[in-house]
Specification:
Layout (H helix, E strand, L loop, with lengths): L9 E7 L5 E7 L7 E6 L13 H6 L2 E6 L23 H14 L7 E5 L1 H12 L7 E4 L19 H7 L4 E3 H5 L3 H6 L3 H14 L17 H4 L7 E3 L4 H5 L15 H14 L2 H10 L20 E6 L11 H9 L3 E7 L6 H4 L1 H14 L4
Parallel strand pairs: 3-4, 3-5, 5-6, 6-9, 9-10
Antiparallel strand pairs: 1-2, 2-4, 7-8
């Protein structure tokens, strides 16, 4: 069904890579004469399919375009699916190794344009940070890059935020730590019809269609400030994610222009088959002081290649980590080319407003003489 919904220029392939996965990826223009390549990395809860509106335009601009289903997602197989498995394979350094291993299997020695959305933004940033010889530019979308752990960081530190959130009236909790619990997958891994409705509500609530998305900069990483964000970020303590978003299920078909029911069904079928647990294992690594601590070897290293940031105007993801955007723009990227806020889009910016995203990507690439 997925293939029927794609532009005919896009082909679907699978390939074994040395890092233990059989990777499914979408590709266009595999024999491009201009010899430039774009690599697109999706986030949560998404798939390579999330780039369906971007791939043809980049191909028409002369790029070979590759968009993989990341470890634990979609038709890519090999990632641990159990809560009790060794989840260290989902740490950022290994997800970056997946990408380099994929390129090696495809005999590609450089990526001219690396783009990551949401959780894929972190993988893109780390890839560009540690292998500027391969990745010639990087675009981070919807999630600002906040750097690798500092070599001086205290791995035993317990963030008081969670106790402070629980003390609020009403008591709250942070979605990433909820996603790291054993209950999260059971809560969300529903039967098909209910799963479809849950995903519809989730995608809707984080899009520009949900009129209550009016993001602004938060003053600090503390309970009082974070609680200003919508409930899909700072949840009620006694509710799961399904309970948080279902009251906001869209009452009209406002989503038809960017994610119709047939397109949504691709996601529904994928998460029905895979469950959410492999994708949630990414969050468990993100929220652990230890699981990404191997990145401390790159402490204080900056992204040297041309970089920029893209996000939808209605996306709270820009501000969900107070100070991260400022840190990225003024400290972590040595060759930073600016922030691009896209109108008429929320968190799913490349699906909600692909036209302006394409324009921004092409301008970024052309202005910086990347080769």
């Amino acid at each position: 069904m997925m293939i029927e919904l794609l532009d005919p220029i896009i082909k679907s392939h699978k390939i074994e890579i040395s890092n233990g996965l059989n990777v499914h990826y979408l590709e266009a223009n595999s024999h491009n004469p201009k010899k430039r390549t774009a690599l697109l990395l999706h986030g949560f809860p998404e798939l390579s399919f999330s780039w369906r509106k971007i791939i043809p335009s980049l191909a028409n601009e002369g790029f070979r375009v590759i968009a993989p289903d990341m470890r634990g997602y979609g038709l890519t197989s090999g990632g641990a699916k159990d809560f009790d498995a060794d989840i260290s394979e989902y740490r950022l350094l290994n997800l970056t190794t997946d990408i380099i291993s994929l390129l090696s299997s495809l005999n590609i020695d450089k990526i001219d344009l690396l783009v990551g959305h949401d959780a894929g933004s972190s993988v893109a940033a780390v890839s560009a940070l540690i292998r500027p010889d391969i990745f010639k530019s990087v675009v981070m979308m919807s999630a600002p890059y906040s750097g690798v752990p500092n070599i001086k960081s205290d791995l035993s530190f317990e963030d008081p935020l969670h106790k402070d959130l629980a003390k609020l009236d009403p008591p709250r909790k942070h979605y990433q730590w909820y996603y790291s619990t054993v209950e999260a997958n059971k809560d969300m891994h529903l039967k098909k019809e209910k799963l479809h409705k849950f995903l519809r509500a989730y995608y809707h609530m984080k899009s520009a269609d949900w009129k209550e998305n009016l993001p602004f900069e938060l003053n600090a990483w503390d309970a009082e400030n974070l609680a200003k964000m919508p409930e899909y970020y700072i949840m009620h303590l006694n509710q799961n994610m399904v309970q948080s978003v279902m009251p906001h299920y869209p009452q009209n078909n406002c989503y038809e222009n960017w994610l119709n029911d047939k397109e949504l069904e691709v996601y529904t079928d994928s998460f029905l088959e895979n469950s959410f647990q492999p994708a949630l294992n990414w969050y468990r690594c993100m929220t652990s002081n230890y699981l990404n601590s191997d990145l401390r070897v790159f402490s204080n290293k900056k992204i040297e290649v041309p970089s920029c940031f893209i996000a939808g105007e209605k996306d709270w993801g820009i501000y969900q980590k107070p100070g991260a955007l400022d840190l990225m723009e003024n400290n972590l990227c040595l060759n930073y080319k600016g922030r691009h806020i896209i109108k008429n889009a929320g968190h799913w910016v490349q699906q909600e407003n692909p036209k302006d995203v394409i324009k921004t990507l092409i301008n970024f690439y052309n202005k910086n003489n990347i080769s």
